[in-house]
Amino acid sequence: MVPWGGFTCCLSAAALYLLGRSSGRDAEVLKSVTRVNQLKELAQLLDTACKVLPLVVTISGRVGSDTPISCEYSGLRGVIVEETAEQHFLKHNDAGSWIQDSALMLSMCKEVPWYLDDGTDRVYVVGARGATGLVLTVGSEVFEESGRSLVRGTLDYLQGLKMLGVKRIERVLPTGTPLTVVGEAVKDDIGTIRIQRPYKGPFYVSHKTIDQLIANLGKWARWYKYASVGFTVFGVFLLAKHAFQYIMERRRHWELRRRVLAAAAKRPGQDNEGSTGNDENGSDNTKKDRLLPDLCVICLEQEYNSVFVPCGHMCSCMACSSHLTNCPLCRRRIEQVVRTFRH
Predict the structure, then answer these.
(1) 106-152 pLDDT tens trace
(2) Most buried one in 69, 153, 286, 290, CB count within 10 A?
C-alpha cells in the first residue's frame, strides 16, 4: 500500500518552503527599493536615476481625485467603488430539509483617475486594483427582504426554493485615505508623474507603511519555514513507519514460508518410515501427519479448524472465516461455519 500520508506531508512541506522563500525574497526586494520621503523630490529623482534603469520607489500620501465617485448607499466619496448583490434563499435538498445558499447577481466596479498627495506634490497611481495588499473599506451592507408576489413565491416553492432577499455590499477606497504605494515611477511627455506596475518587481498598494510591509513578509517567511520543517519531520516519520512495517511484514511471511517448506521437507521421510513399520496402525500415521502444520490459507499463522457448509471445504481458522462470505477454494457462498476439534 502506498503511504500517501507521508508523500502528502512532504509535498506540503516543499510548497510551504517555496512560499517562505518567496516571502523572504519579496522582503529583501522591498528593502532595496528607493524611499521617497517627499513627493516633490520624485521629479528630480526621475530626471537623474531613470535614464538607465526603471526606477522602483515607495511613496506615501493621501488619496485624492479631481472627479471622485459619490457612493449610492453609504454617501462616501471614493476613487474605487465595488458593488456586489447576492440573492439569498433556502434550497430544499434530497434529505427533505432546507439549507441556506446564495448566488451572485451583480458585480460592478468603478474607478476614476486618482493620486497620492502629501502636501508637497501629487503622484497618480495606475492599475491599483491589480496590486498586492489593496483592501477596500466596506462602506455599506444592506439586506433587502424579498418582496415577491404570492404567485411568484408559490412557483419558487414548487421548484424547491424560498427567496429570503438580496444582500448589497458596497466597498470603497475613500478620498483622504493614507496609503503606501510601491511601484515603478514614470513621467509622461507633459511632466505628469505616475506609479504603475513594474515589468519585473514588486507592486504594492497598502494601508501599512513600508517598514510594516517588510516586517510582515519576514514574519510570514519564518512561519512558512517552521511549518515546512514540521511537515517534513512528520512526513519522514510516516514514511519510515510504513517502511518498518513493510520490512517486518515481509520478514514474517519469509519466516512462515520457511517453516512450511521445512515441514514439507520432513514429510516424505516420515511417510516412508510409517509405511514400512506401522501401515496397519492408523493412529500412528495421523500423529506423523500432524508434523506438517495445517495452516490457514488466509493468515498463515493459525491451524485451520472450520468447515464451510454446504461445500464442506476446510481451509481457514475461525477468526478468518468470520470475515468470509464465499469459500476461498470453490467460491461458493458460505451459509454456515462449523468448528472442528482435534483429538
Answers:
(1) 888 999 999 999 888 899 999 888 898 889 999 888 888 876 666 67
(2) 69
